[in-house]
Amino acid sequence: MSRQVISKRDIKRYHKLGKASKSHADTTIPIKADQYVDRLLKYIPAEVVACYVFVLGIMNRLTDPTEIIVIQWGIFVVFCILTYLYLWRILEVRKIQQLAISLMAFVIWVFALGGPFTLLGWYNPIYGEILLPIFTFGIAIWEAEK
Hints:
By secondary structure, this protein is mainly alpha-helical. About 5% of the residues have low confidence.
């Protein structure tokens, strides 16, 4: 399964260009648009979140306050970049909207987990606990087009 979201507009474009896939028996298999659950799974960079959670566990052993600030924010930025690169280079996602949504999803997951945001005076874990399910289930309504 490709990780790039297939929208209704993509289907129209494929059929207009005659790019509908064919089976071995030369029977046309219509490409269908991703449904809500498909988009939900494709938008969340679960592999990146899992790696970040692992690294976050390691970072919890840091004791120097200055080191904690620098490393927490540094790792967060590195994983933001890795999210984009992983989706673009490895999973071959080419839709800018989908890449932006997935990057936002990663940031919101980190916000919900705490990460470097816990170092900010205004941070309250309940903000992430509320934002995460709202974003996760709400964003899959959107069909990434470009």
